[in-house]
Amino acid sequence: MSLLIILLVLMIIGAIIAIETTNLLSSIVCVGAVGFLISIAFLFLGAPDLAITQLVVEVLCLIILIRATINRDLTSVAGDREFFGLTVTVAMVLVFAIVGVKVFGEFPLLGQPVMDRMADTPSAVYLAQGTEQTGAKNVVTALMLGYRNYDALGQVAILFCSVLGALAILRRPARKEEIEKDQEADAV
Amino acid sequence: MIDSTQKEGMDLVAKSVTGWLKGFIFLFGVYLVLHSHETPGGGFAGGIIIACAFILFTLAEGQRAGMKILSKNLAAKLASVGALIFLGAAIAGTCGKGFFCKDFPGAAHAGILSFFEENAISIYDMALALVVSMLLFVAFSIMAAVHVTVKDGKRKMVHRRRE
Amino acid sequence: MVYALCLVLIAIGLYGVVVKKNIVKIVISMAIIEYGINVLLVLIGYRSGGCAPILKQGMTAATLAANAVDPLPQALVMTAIMINLGMLILMVAICIRLYERYGTFDITEMRRLKG
After folding, report:
1. Range of the domain at B17
2. Structure pTM?
3. Cβ neighbours of residue A134 under 8 Å, at least 6 residues apart?
4. Of C5, C88, C90, which has the smallest distance from its Cβ to A61's Cβ?
5. Count of domains forming chain B
6. Residue B153 has what pLDDT?
7. Do C54 and B143 touch (CB under 8 A)?
């Protein structure tokens, strides 16, 4: 429990460094560190599936983010927006905090999931009957690909859409001069 | 990102280490997918690790060598095949009781299909791993390893950068 | 409380999205918001002293139901992690194209130049 608090405090420090530092490469590495700490937190929270997935997704995010910034001339940022943006942000964060404190009353206490208080929650049914109905000992996989297989179908659709979108965006060259340069190279 | 002076990939240390490790990484990804019903893992994590093996090989050896192993068009086609397997398995379950049903028709007879009879999750896992790995390799490849050129009046994405 | 720290993480990411000028910083702040939400969801389903929801040797389903953490938020967060990956791919593709069109990452400049 105290370990969780230490990990969260480290994550907050890493997030502040990632946002405030002026060198883009350092901020990308800090986001990688935050993701790695989240993977460790998932291990302590009893979610080994999620720890593995978060770790490898983190590595892929780093590769993709570094590709966006590695060859660019502008690797340092210009600063913050003007005063109006700052006040709007502070007001929004205050509203967020007040609403969050009210919502805390609805959350279960840390360490006592909803399954304990109510008897017929879906999680209790999945844990009790999941293994014999789907044949998988790992209840999370039984949930994702057995009971809730439509989610996996939606996953496949989302991944296809995002890759198709990236393909559609990156298919055209940015300026006309590049097309003419390629046509000259073709003609030669 | 990969210009003409780096066409051959990275230096010797990276190439040697990649040559030793790429088989193990691929095997670990396949292990995570195949054993997802009893150990943590699942189709998503295994698929991403398989994609990482191909990405590592493409980064270390350069675009030409990477294109020989797995090109962008082949990866896109394999991803579509994986999605069709997922849908086909779902529709085949319709013959039983409903969509995504557990019982496959005629699965009691064949030896290998009885594996799918007991845990029908496995075929969805394998199809999902195929789709996820090929899609992420396509995403990496269109961002970092291909170049848009105009050929015969139409735009294409080819692997080699023109110098 | 631990939930408060998660909300602080989400609020830090929100601050980054609204205030920063560099578009890569905005993408990074979006990633931090997503991480905070994932941790919050998994924290809701935590049981103190509980085990992972995997049936080991010699365990019956009843003991698993009494001892394990909640598996439902974990399945949802797994989906959420993959959706965040897809979103990041699309956002970074847009950043690359914006840089090649305008020559800068600064979003205040992108309104004035007409490339």
Report:
1. 4-158
2. 0.85
3. A142, A146, A147, B102, B119, B120, B121
4. C88
5. 1
6. 55
7. no
Share of chain B residues as helix, strand and coil, in percent rounded to the nearest 5: 65, 5, 30
B139 with C89: Cβ contact below 8 A? yes
Contact between residue A129 and residue C61 where contact means Cβ atoms under 8 Å apart: yes
- Against chain A, the chains showing at least 3 CB pairs within 8 Å are B, C
Highest mean pLDDT among A131-135, A148-152, C32-36, C101-105: C32-36
Domain range C2-45+61-111, its CATH number among 2.120.10.30, 3.40.50.2300, 1.10.287.3510, 3.40.1550.10 = 1.10.287.3510
Query: What is the per-residue pLDDT across B62-112, written as a single tens digit (0 to 9) for each?
Result: 878 888 888 888 999 999 999 998 888 877 765 555 555 554 444 333 444
Given CB atoms, is C92 within the 8 Å cutoff of chain B?
Answer: yes
For residue B5, is pLDDT > 70? no
CB-based contact A49 B42, cutoff 8 Å: yes
Within a domain: residue B163?
no
DSSP three-state, residue B154: strand
Query: Hey, where are the domains in chain C?
Result: 2-45+61-111
Asked if C40 has any chain A CB less than 8 Å from its own CB, the reply is no
Rounded Cα–Cα distance for residues B54 and B76 (Å): 14
Q: What torsion do the CA atoms of A154, A158, A159, A162 make, to the nearest 10 degrees?
A: 170
pLDDT, tens digit, 9 for 90 and up, residues A70-96: 766 555 555 556 677 778 878 887 888
Nearest CA to CA, how far is C112 from chain A (Å)?
16
CB contacts of A142 in chain B (<8 Å) are 37, 121
Q: Is the pLDDT of residue B162 over 50?
A: no
